[in-house]
């Protein structure tokens, strides 16, 4: 039975949108949802290790956010890097589009960009005369709902402490709460999913099943696959990790490098994800639909209403939720 997208809408007071991080990564609040009992409790993220049981394996996404926004202020042009396609060639978003038709050239980020092709979705294939130095010229692609430009603080805090595989254009935000100390205290493994700009795209279709999910690249090492196979329960840190786990074929996990466009929404039945740590997501987003599939829509929407009443901080720099 089809569920309309409007069933995943809610009203959020604007002051609850966290546009800056807390002073300490692990200082956020953590709402805990028990799916078996339907109970909701309120803890701190520092309590996260106490909820793990013998045989658990915490799975984290070690993708690193690249400084994907390139600006040419004198020409009022922005190139947003989406995905590397080869030497000096990228799939990009450009603004304004009318200036970036095939054959257009622009001096930007210490190099020259040439528009090769316009794709059906409006993205551009752009070839640079030499690879842009993102650390020197790029800007961190903080979410549009921050309603501000990125700054030096975002270079550090819009990045997990364990990020070491460059490729994302948005942070896997559930991991932003972890410190090196907490990580050292828990059994964990890493996989990599490079988060694309599609994570911010709204669901414009009226029916969920009509939405086309964006595609993202992921990798799992043999070491990680072996550790995950030996675990009794996989605790996914973030929707990106859960999407990778649920994209894998039945049977024991193996090392792999692949792409996924899996779209998880109710009444999807999870196969590999045993528990999920997640931030609070935008209304009507595919991320909210995923956590509703995991916890049940009514339970999740009740939890969101309670989070608003309790003045939790929402979205990328906000508080988190542990679903058991």
Main traits of this protein?
single chain, 324 residues, alpha/beta, QueA-like, Thrombin, subunit H, 2 domains, 9-stranded mixed beta sheet, 7 helices, 17 strands, 29% strand
What topology does this entry show?
Layout lengths: L28 E6 L4 E6 L11 E6 L1 E3 L3 E4 L4 E10 L2 E7 L9 E4 L2 E8 L5 E5 L5 H4 L14 H6 L7 E4 L11 H5 L3 E6 L22 E5 L1 H9 L2 E5 L1 H9 L8 E5 L12 E7 L6 H10 L1 H13 L10 E4 L1
Parallel strand pairs: 1-17, 3-12, 3-14, 4-11, 14-16
Antiparallel strand pairs: 1-2, 5-6, 6-7, 7-10, 8-9, 9-10, 12-13, 13-15, 16-17
Helix pairs in contact: 6-7
Please describe what this structure looks like.
There is one protein chain. The protein folds into two domains: 5-65 and 143-323, QueA-like (3-Layer(aba) Sandwich); 69-137, Thrombin, subunit H (Beta Barrel). The mean pLDDT is 95. Strand 8 and strand 9 form a beta hairpin. The strands form three sheets. The chain has a nine-stranded mixed β-sheet with strand order 2-1-17-16-14-3-12-13-15. A six-stranded antiparallel β-sheet has the order 5-6-7-10-9-8, with no helix packed on it. The protein is an alpha/beta fold. The chain has helices spanning 134-137, 152-157, 180-184, 222-230, 239-247, 286-295, 297-309; strands spanning 29-34, 39-44, 56-61, 63-65, 69-72, 77-86, 89-95, 105-108, 111-118, 124-128, 165-168, 188-193, 216-220, 233-237, 256-260, 273-279, 320-323.
């Amino acid at each position: 039975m089809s569920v309309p997208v409007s069933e995943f809408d809610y009203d959020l007071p604007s002051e609850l949108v966290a546009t800056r991080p807390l002073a300490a990564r692990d200082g956020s609040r953590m709402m805990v949802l028990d799916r078996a009992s339907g109970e909701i409790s309120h803890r701190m993220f520092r309590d996260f290790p106490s909820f793990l049981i013998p045989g658990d394996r915490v799975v984290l996404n070690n993708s690193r956010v690249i400084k994907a926004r390139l600006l040419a202020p004198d020409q009022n042009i922005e190139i947003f890097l989406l995905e590397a396609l080869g030497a000096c060639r990228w799939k990009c978003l450009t603004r304004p589009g009318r200036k970036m038709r095939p054959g257009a050239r622009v001096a930007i980020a210490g190099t020259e960009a040439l528009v090769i092709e316009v794709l059906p979705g409006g993205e551009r294939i752009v070839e640079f005369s030499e690879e842009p130095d993102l650390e020197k010229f790029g800007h961190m692609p903080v979410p549009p709902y921050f309603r501000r430009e990125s700054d030096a603080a975002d270079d550090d805090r819009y990045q997990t402490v364990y990020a070491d595989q460059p490729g994302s254009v948005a942070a896997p935000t559930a991991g932003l709460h972890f410190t090196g100390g907490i990580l050292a205290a828990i059994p964990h493994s890493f996989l990599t999913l490079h988060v694309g700009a599609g994570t911010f795209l709204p669901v414009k279709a009226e029916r969920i099943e009509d939405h086309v999910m964006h595609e993202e690249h992921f990798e799992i090492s043999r070491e990680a696959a072996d550790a995950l196979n030996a675990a009794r329960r996989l605790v996914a840190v973030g929707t990106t990790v859960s999407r990778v786990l649920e994209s894998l074929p039945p049977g024991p996990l193996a090392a792999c490098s692949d792409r996924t466009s899996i779209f998880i929404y109710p009444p999807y039945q999870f196969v590999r994800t045993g528990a999920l740590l997640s931030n609070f997501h935008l209304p009507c987003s595919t991320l909210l639909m995923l956590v509703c599939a995991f916890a049940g829509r009514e339970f999740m929407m009740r939890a969101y209403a309670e989070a608003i009443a309790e003045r939790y901080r929402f979205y990328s720099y906000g508080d988190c939720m542990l679903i058991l």
